[in-house]
Design goal:
Elements lengths: L7 E7 L10 E5 L2 E5 L19 H16 L4 E11 L11 E3 L5 E3 L9
Parallel strand pairs: 2-4, 3-4
Antiparallel strand pairs: 1-4, 5-6
């Protein structure tokens, strides 16, 4: 069981037009787990809706690469963002999803942990 989408490795490279004489190279790595509702949850249920922040490292690296493109420093940079959505299936719900009931009332999903009581 797992998400219908395979994990991805995002690789971005910045190469300066005029490299620094020392030939330095910087690597940035940030985890990009967009949602994690598969398997047994080891996080407390009251923080389940905060799982979407597991992608903050990946987002920070992508933001840094955007800034590098504008600043154009003289050092080469390679960014790596392993990205995955850990879901038991393509129709699984995510924390933060909004569900409309048959009566038309909307409900926000805060916890997808089947073990929570």
């Amino acid at each position: 069981m797992g998400s219908s989408e395979p994990p991805a490795l995002i690789v971005l490279r910045y190469r300066p037009a005029q490299p620094a004489p020392d030939g330095g190279h910087l690597a940035l790595v940030g985890k990009g787990v967009t949602f994690d509702s598969g398997g047994v949850s080891i996080k407390p249920s009251e923080g389940m809706d905060k799982m979407k922040y597991d992608m903050a490292g990946g987002a920070a690296v992508l933001g840094a690469m955007r800034a590098l493109a504008e600043l154009r420093p003289s050092v080469a940079v390679t960014a790596l963002v392993p990205a995955v959505e850990n879901m038991p299936g393509g129709r699984a719900q995510r924390p933060g999803d909004i569900v409309t009931t048959l009566s038309g009332k909307t409900v926000e999903v805060l916890n997808t942990d089947a073990e929570a009581g």
